[in-house]
């Protein structure tokens, strides 16, 4: 058409598209979830922009998503009357990989061995480009809310796309239409009944109504009512409904490990729908990744950058819908709002207490949550002093006594030996190697349990958390791990008395030989089989932390 230009995709997009086109991923339905969720996002963006500029809503009708099947032309169209895109916005959004999720997906792809691809698609969802799993050509026409020109974008997914102005007559009155020219083997998406089932199951809870047109000239039939799930009473919502809402909200493809749905009343009124994922989201350790909770005001999406939850709960996905905030709340207002501060505090405490309940009532399921997210929760031990005690209470550890089932510090303290004054821990990269280290011989000989800490953060929080329930935490690599008061187990051999004159003479010889390389050489009750081990000075920095700091160049 007029003013149409052909452009090449960014290299990363081209790679991603190649993958989509040749994908062997069997659950191709995910493309529908992606397109419907983009359409819903567009409607929510419009609702939000219209708060400041109500004229944007003129003549476009109530927010709606419409699917149209055209068996003769072998096309499936997903249309919304949301915010729309200008030509420039199209080239930006549909020619590059703007979203961090897709970027992270690409990085993981590069790391993973060949063949892991389809599994990764299933885990992440990859946005708009997933349309090329089922289509050999995708056309997008769009009209930005408030604008009078229309734009079009088209591609066969093979390296280039065209973008240009569109005839306004072929574009929606407002919003975007994405038309998929279905591949030979994707004919199933032309069956309206099957389509209806899939969309209901996957996207029945998006907060925008969805209609289906069974043929281009047929009337649209409503297949989902757009009633936001969280506004309905809990008693009317099934586990399957929650799971669908979770997948839509979290972009996950599994089942939630924990679901929270409640309404806070009192000083502030808000509804919370939040999930602890059943598996690790891919961007869990992304340093820029703050919380993923969305903020709504009376069902209008406001932002997902309100940082409702602290960083150490960044794996929780969901939303808060406030009845107290003004609809035109700005970024600055959110920063300073006392209402938002109260919501943050309330939701954080609630998530923590629900995790505590799960730990108590369903230890097996909780163990999985801890396995996935314990390393993140531990960041709270040094970031949030007020909640440290609660976090220590729900922390679980592999120890020299735990076997496969992780233990709590409460379990540890209850099992402490007579004369044992501290909680002992060893930090390292590998639990089995730690357990076999000479540092632990003296502990084993006395039957004293040692926590085996293998997460990156363990070196940090242990240096900042002084105690649990009055028992000091002590690293086994720090000197004088005062075990003297704990009797040896029966059959274990007592080390030589350290005052024996031959030993003193030998120690003096070692001190002289090693010189400034060590600060002291001592006999110790910590070893039973090995001859020597290196320890940090009594008040010195833990050796593992020392290594971490050295690797960070400090
Ligand atoms: P994400 O939705 O995570 O941003 P996608 O790949 O699904 O990533 O979409 C990329 C971008 O394309 C969106 O961020 C949005 O800017 C734009 N987009 C896609 N579909 C629509 C639509 N129906 N209406 C408006 N913009 C859209
Ligand atoms: Mg999307």
TrEMBL record:
InterPro entries (alphabetical): HATPase_C_sf, HATPase_dom, Heat_shock_protein_90_CS, HSP90_C, Hsp90_fam, Hsp90_N, Ribosomal_Su5_D2-typ_SF
GO cellular component, one term: cytoplasm
Single GO term (MF): ATP hydrolysis activity
Recorded superkingdom: Bacteria
Residue ranges of the region described as A: 1-331
Subunit structure: Homodimer.
UniProt name for this protein: Chaperone protein HtpG
């Amino acid at each position: 058409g007029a003013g149409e230009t052909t452009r090449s995709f960014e290299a990363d997009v081209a790679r991603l598209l190649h993958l989509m086109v040749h994908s062997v991923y069997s659950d191709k339905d995910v493309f529908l979830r992606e397109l419907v969720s983009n359409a819903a996002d567009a409607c929510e963006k419009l609702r939000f922009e219209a708060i400041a500029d109500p004229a944007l809503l003129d003549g476009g009708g109530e927010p709606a998503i419409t699917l149209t099947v055209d068996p003769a032309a072998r096309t499936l169209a997903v249309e919304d009357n949301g915010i729309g895109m200008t030509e420039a916005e199209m080239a930006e959004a549909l020619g590059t990989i703007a979203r961090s999720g897709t970027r992270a997906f690409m990085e993981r792809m590069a790391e993973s061995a060949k063949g892991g691809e389809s599994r990764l698609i299933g885990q992440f969802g990859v946005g708009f480009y997933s349309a090329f799993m089922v289509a050999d050509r995708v056309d997008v026409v769009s009209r930005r809310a408030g604008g009078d020109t229309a734009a079009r974008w088209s591609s066969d997914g093979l390296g280039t796309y065209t973008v240009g102005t569109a005839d306004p007559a072929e574009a929606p009155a407002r919003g975007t239409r994405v038309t998929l020219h279905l591949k030979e083997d994707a004919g199933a998406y032309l069956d309206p009944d099957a389509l209806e089932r899939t969309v209901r199951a996957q996207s029945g809870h998006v907060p925008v109504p969805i209609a289906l047109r069974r043929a281009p000239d047929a009337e649209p039939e409503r297949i989902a009512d757009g009633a936001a799930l969280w506004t309905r009473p809990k008693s009317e919502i099934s586990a399957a409904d929650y799971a669908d809402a979770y997948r839509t909200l979290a972009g996950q493809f599994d089942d939630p490990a924990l679901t929270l749905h409640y309404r806070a009343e009192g000083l502030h009124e808000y509804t919370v729908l939040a999930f602890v994922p059943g598996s690790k989201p891919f961007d869990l350790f992304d340093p820029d990744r703050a919380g993923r909770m969305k903020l709504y005001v009376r069902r209008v999406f406001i932002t997902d950058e309100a940082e409702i939850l602290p960083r150490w709960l960044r794996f929780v996905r969901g939303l808060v819908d406030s009845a107290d905030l003004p609809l035109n709340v700005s970024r600055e207002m959110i920063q300073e709002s006392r209402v938002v501060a109260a919501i943050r505090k309330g939701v954080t405490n609630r998530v923590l207490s629900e995790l505590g309940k799960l730990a108590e009532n369903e230890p097996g399921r909780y163990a999985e949550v801890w396995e996935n997210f314990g390393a993140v929760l531990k960041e709270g031990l040094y970031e949030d002093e007020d909640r440290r005690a609660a976090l220590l209470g729900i922390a679980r550890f592999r120890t020299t006594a735990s076997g496969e089932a992780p233990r709590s510090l409460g379990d540890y303290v209850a099992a402490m030996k007579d004369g044992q004054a501290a909680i002992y821990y060893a930090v390292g990269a590998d639990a089995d190697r730690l357990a076999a280290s000479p540092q632990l011989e003296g502990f084993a000989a006395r039957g004293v349990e040692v926590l085996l800490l293998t997460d990156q953060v363990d070196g940090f929080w242990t240096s900042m958390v002084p105690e649990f329930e009055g028992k000091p935490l002590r690293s086994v690599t720090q000197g004088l791990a005062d075990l003297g008061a704990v009797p040896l187990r029966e059959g274990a051999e007592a080390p030589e008395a350290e005052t024996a004159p031959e030993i003193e003479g030998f120690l003096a010889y070692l001190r002289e030989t090693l010189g400034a390389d060590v600060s002291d050489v001592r006999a110790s009750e910590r070893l039973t089989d090995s001859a020597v081990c290196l320890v940090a000075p009594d008040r010195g920095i833990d050796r593992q932390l020392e290594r971490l700091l050295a690797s960070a160049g400090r």
